[in-house]
Target: Triosephosphate isomerase
Amino acid sequence: MRKPIIAGNWKMHMTIESGKAFVKEVAASLGDTEVEVVLCVPFTLIQPLSTAAEGTPVKIAAQNMHYEDFGAFTGEVSADMLKEVGATYVVIGHSERRQYFNETDETVNLKLKKAHASGLKPIVCCGETLEEREAGTTESVVKRQVEAAFEGISPELAAETVVAYEPVWAIGTGRTATAAQAQEVIAYIRSLVEAKYGDEVSEEMRIQYGGSVKPDNVEEIMNEVDIDGALVGGASLKPDSFLSLVNF
Ligand code: PEP
Model:
């Protein structure tokens, strides 16, 4: 049984104060949840929110990291630095990073290796653009992204990696992939993992869907057999909305 994982991606939103209040409110309502609850927050919120989340089921993630340990990389933050301030997870290769910050399949792979080496749990994103979907190349795009991301990653570490399938056309657009569309691509990703690593790893790996997930569509999405969670932007910014997602 794969443990469901619901992750809120706050992008460049929230403050230390509003973030701490959010964690307090959500943690107070979670009880003994069976769901893994993650908040992917801006760098400056990682330390205060990790402290606020201590003793609760809420885990804090970074939204990006550099693949080197240290050096002349102005503006960047390393995996060990994120660990030091309390991050448990890190998002790698979000489509906004690929689109606006030159993230490539190669840097995604380097970051995935470094995250594992540092003991951060990676959430690796993949997904096609609207043009790619309309051109019928969804599978080949996702195949390229997934194969490149996992190049040189051992089966043990692959099994501990979370993959987020996020069609770019569904992110922040209000246009959700249907549950069936999401299931189809996620089953395909699982088949790629099986081809590379075998049954056991593909059965163990958690794969999320992301793209305009909201309280009113989360249940349908989570009911799909291969979908183990959601990576959620807009609907993760309010505690009551985020709680409805966690309580799908
Ligand atoms: C995201 O940030 O990864 C995302 C899926 O955003 P939204 O839920 O707003 O589409």
Remarks:
- The chain has twelve helices and eight strands.
- Residues 9, 11, 166, 171-172, 210-213, 231-235 surround phosphoenolpyruvate (CB under 6 Å).
- The chain has one domain: 5-246.
- The CA atoms of residues 236 and 242 lie 5 Å apart.
